[in-house]
Each structure stands twice: as structure tokens, then as C-alpha cells.
Amino acid sequence: MRKVQPLLLFAAVAAMVGATAGQLAWWESGVIYQIYPRSFKDSDGDGVGDLNGVIEKLDYLQSLGVAAIWLSPIYKSPMADYGYDISDYREIDPLFGTMEDFEALLEGAHQRDIKVILDFVPNHSSDEHEWFIASSDPTHENYEKYKDYYVWVDAKEDGSVPNNWPTQFDQQTAWEWNEARQQYYLHQFHIKQPDLNYRNPEVLAEMQDNLRFWLDKGVDGYRMDAVTFLVEAEGFPDGVPGDIDQPYMHQPESYVIVQEFRAVVDEYDNRTMITESYGTVDQILGYYGNETNPGADFSFNFLLITDVNASSTAADFAEVIGNWIDIVDERGVWSNWVIGNHDQHRVASRFSPDLVDGMNMLVTLLPGTAVTYNGEEIGMEDNYNMTCEIATDPAGCWDGVTLGNSRDPERTPFQWDNSTNAGFSTANETWLPVNENYVTLNAEAQEEAGRSHLKTYRQLVALREEPAVQTGVTAVNSSAQVIAFSRTADDGTEVVVAVNVGDRPDVVDLYEMLGLSQRSFVISAASVSSIRQPGGPADPGLLVFSPHESVTLISTPVELEEY
Ligand SMILES: *[C@@H]1O[C@H](CO)[C@@H](O)[C@H](O)[C@H]1NC(C)=O
Ligand SMILES: *[C@@H]1O[C@H](CO)[C@@H](O)[C@H](O)[C@H]1NC(C)=O
Ligand SMILES: *[C@@H]1O[C@H](CO)[C@@H](O)[C@H](O)[C@H]1NC(C)=O
Ligand SMILES: *[C@@H]1O[C@H](CO)[C@@H](O)[C@H](O)[C@H]1NC(C)=O
Ligand SMILES: CC(=O)N[C@H]1CO[C@H](CO)[C@@H](O)[C@@H]1O
Ligand SMILES: [Ca+2]
Ligand SMILES: [Ca+2]
Prior knowledge:
This protein is 26% helix and 17% strand. It contains 19 helices and 22 strands. The strands form five sheets. It has an eight-stranded parallel sheet. A hairpin with a 5-residue loop joins strand 16 (482-488) and strand 17 (494-500). One 2-acetamido-2-deoxy-beta-D-glucopyranose is lined by residues 255-256, 259, 290, 292-293.
């Protein structure tokens, strides 16, 4: 009766990694949880989150079941870009705490079997880093040593900037004039974030030593920021606006630098390296390196951020997801999924609050590593209730009035409970305003509720233990409203996810849609508003979906079926 689209694929994910569940590395099998430290928990009442705040919440993190936390930058910084402008790669910023606090956090996390991944920002330092201070001042005693640490270029004959490259923040020129040197320096982000010069081998060697510093302390790996921009084309040619190939992005030399960083991480056991880069699939895959020169364990797959949105149909989702799985399979690299970070609007606001559970199902149960941005497990929403006087993200408020591309709405404090400032801080004022919806939308309320995003999230993380989720074969398909996929283990166990991304009801036959075996299934997780109860039975042959409803099913053991 109902027209069913042909199966998009049956990707042999298990064969691809040549591994069984027990053999997966921790960064493959587990969930990585991103903490934006300024907004997670403030321990000393100054309105800004800090390391002791994270320590206070380690039990919470353990309760989520995540394998690792990735901390956005905590190094010494003037905070022009809230820590992504580093003035000392080997010190903790006093706003976040001390080295002792960091060591305590590392120990506390490890005691709970949680790995700790640091953010590394290799493309640029702060202009307040001692290297730049020396590099930008010919009278400085260390000028000779540091003069080529940054990208310095002469003006054109008429005194204008070397080329048409824009910054990533405001699309104005990426060149800033320096009187002392009578040259321009490159800054692909903020003026206070000068690009390091990776054509100078000393810069690479120093940054490699900075990596060793924290690996020696016992951190479990790095997430490398903005590797897209590491090296620029020789001769600094103009770019063609709108082109996917730009002379300041994804240069072949940038892939090599990533491989050089990888070599350092591989001097240690059991550590990981992940890279952040937006681009075409081919550009992104370049950061994985190759067999002789490995790069990242995985390069972030941002497709659920860049290629789908609230108006995407189930078929759009199936195509985006299916294509990625096919490509990853074909190239033999490790997959990963992420749907939010401190640069992207909240899932609840970008899609719908009703879709929070469904989106968490996609991220956690599709093949590969899952990455969660803090607050997505409770479905936090963007907070637009702020003015440009408060919102100081350099990517927004260009006119001083409109938030524009400001990333502050998704960076507001974590909502722990319904006490003052959502339990985030005892300060009179927090660095960004707490979303007023904290009174009802908070972790404690979700802990107490019978059903909640938080409880669903924990069920999903726990479900990752299933061999079907770790290494199972994947099939993806869609109906008019519903995107569905199955993961099938060697022993035949099937985990099935179905999400109604549409705003109309739909009736689906998952046996037919996904080619499931004719076994019986139970509900293992369901979206909060679903009438279905986790643990309850489900007939995959006739599932009626209300708008935005999502469910996860698991096949019951064959023995049970025989009764
Ligand atoms: C691997 O990458 C390195 C550096 O990018 C390159 O020189 C080498 O040719 C590549 N090897 C293979 C087998 O593709
Ligand atoms: C790597 O980490 C895993 C998970 O924590 C552990 O089981 C394994 O023993 C570690 N391997 C090494 C070589 O340290
Ligand atoms: C939303 O995604 C669809 C494809 O899934 C695309 O056609 C459309 O242009 C996107 N809309 C916006 C506003 O980005
Ligand atoms: C907006 O923020 C102000 C000040 O923080 C607060 O008093 C007000 O209740 C907020 N309004 C809404 C609709 O959240
Ligand atoms: C997602 C992410 O980490 N984005 C960062 C990329 O790099 C720039 C500059 O360091 C930051 O501003 C972003 O927050
Ligand atoms: Ca604090
Ligand atoms: Ca660069």
C-alpha cells in the first residue's frame, strides 16, 4: 500500500574496522562529552565556570556513562575569543583555577574511568603570547628568534593589504598592519589571534613540545581546533569569493602538519587525536592521513549540523547519513557523529524541543564515536535574551546592536536545578545570562521526572554497549516522515532507531523498510512525549508515529521468541 523507498545501503561497518566490540579503542566505543568550562559550573562565585566546578560534577558525568570529557580551552588567555586565544600553552588561566586543580580534575576523572581530552589550538596564539610580543617588535631582545613565528607579509606597493583573504568572524580583511615591523600579520580569526607560521620548522617543534607537556601529565588526547587554516598557499594568492577551494583553507601542507602532531600523540599509549574542520567530505577526510602517515583518529563529521535543518525531510536525513556511512566504509576510516558545539545553535532551537531525544538517538547509535555538547542531554535551548553589552562574542554584534552570528545564545550557563542562577553560580551576575526557562528545564527536574531527555540520554549511552551498536552492520531508509536505521550484530541482534523528523504522523513497517529479520522487539528508549514506554513491546511491522516522535527498539533474544 504505502510506497517504500529502496534500501539506501547495507554498509559493512564491522568488516571495515576488522574488529569486534571488545577490541575497539576507548575513543571508538564510548561517548565523548564536550565541556565548555566557562558555562559548566562555577565553584567560587565569580560568575564564570571553572575546573573545580567540573570536579564537583564528575559524579554527574559518570552517571551519564560517557567515556571521555573534552574540555574547551583552559589555558592562559586574555579571552578575546574566550580561550581560543592562548597566551601560554602550558599554564591554566587563573579564571579556571590552578595547575593543581587541573591535576585533581585529571585524577578524579581517571578514578571514575573517564578520559580527559584537551582542546589544542594550533593555528594561532594570542597576540599577548611572548612569541608574538617578540615577533612584532624589532627592538625586542628575542626578535631574531621569533621574527618568523607568525605570518608576516609586506604591504602591496600602494600600501594596501597583501590579498583579499577575510577573517572567519566578520569577513573583514584578515590582515592587520604592524607599525614597528612595517608589515601586515595574518589573523584568520580575531585581530588578537595571529596565525602561527608552520612553514617555520621551529614553530612546529615548539607546538609538538607543548603537546608533550600535557601528554606527560597524563591527558588522554587532543581535539585540534580549526586545522583547516593551519598552512596557507605559498605566494599568498587572492581567493575567489564563494569558491570551495580557498588558498587559506585545507592546503596539502596542513594535512602534513596534522600528521606531525599525530606522530607526537603516538609516542604515548592509548591516546587519541581528533581534528575539527568544516569542508567538503574530501577535504575533511584528508585529516585522517593515510596508513603510512596517520592523522586524526577521526575528523569531525559535521553533516548533522551543516547539511540538515528543521525543514529537511526524512529522505534528506537518510541521504546525508547514508552517503557519509558509504564514504567512511569505502575509505576504511572511523566514523563519528556530532550535532552541537559551542559554535552552533542548540538542537532544541535549531530543530525542535520535541526532537532532542530523536537527534540524540542518531548521534549515539549511528556507527562510530558520538560527541555530545554539554546541555544537549537535557535539551537546553538558545538564550537570545541578552544585549550586545553583555554578549561579547567577537563573531557577533558587529554593529554593536544585533546579535547576528553571536555564539553566546548557545553558550549560556548549564541548568543544574531551579535554585538561583540554575545552580550554576552563586554570583549576582553570571558571565552570560542564565536562560529563564531553567525553572522547569534543568538536570535535577529531569532526574526526578519519570521520563526525561536526561533519562533517555542515559539509556542511549548504555545501549552503546550492545555489539550491534559498537560494530554492527547498518541499514538506513526513510518513509515520508520517518528516518530509520538498523544496526545488526554478528549474532543477529538488531537495534533499530526511528525518528519522525516531520510534523505530521506516519505509519511505518520497519521490517520492510529496513529488511529486519522477523523477530519480536521491545522498546529500549522513546522520546519523552511518546506514548510508548521503554521496556514495553512494539510491533515493528505497524508503528504509528506522532509528529517528532522517536523510538529505539531492540530485538528480543531468539530463545524468548520460542516460547
Ligand atoms: C601519506 O601521506 C604522506 C604525507 O601527506 C604522503 O607523502 C604519502 O605519499 C602518503 N602515502 C600514501 C600511501 O598515500
Ligand atoms: C587503554 O585503555 C583501555 C580502556 O581504558 C584499557 O582497557 C587498556 O588496558 C589500555 N591500554 C593500554 C596499553 O594502556
Ligand atoms: C535545509 O536543508 C535542506 C536539505 O536538507 C536544504 O535544501 C535547505 O536549503 C536548507 N535550508 C536552510 C535554511 O539552510
Ligand atoms: C530577560 O533577562 C532579564 C535580565 O536578565 C530578566 O529579568 C527577564 O526575565 C528575561 N526575560 C525573559 C523572557 O527571559
Ligand atoms: C567548534 C570550535 O571549536 N570552534 C572554534 C574554532 O576555532 C575558532 C578560533 O580558534 C573558535 O572561535 C571556535 O570556537
Ligand atoms: Ca569561577
Ligand atoms: Ca594558519
